[in-house]
Amino acid sequence: MSVTKFAAFAGAAVVVTLAVTLAMTQIMLPAQRFEDCIEGSVAGGNIGGPFELMDHRGQMVTDAQVLDQPALVYFGYTFCPDVCPMDVARNVVAVEILADAGLTVKPVFITIDPARDTVDYLADFVANNHPEMVGLTGTAEQIAKAARAYKVYYRKQPSEDEDYYLMDHSSFSYFMVPDVGFVDFLRSDLLPEVVADRLACVLRAP
Question: pTM for the complete prediction?
Answer without folding.
Answer: 0.82
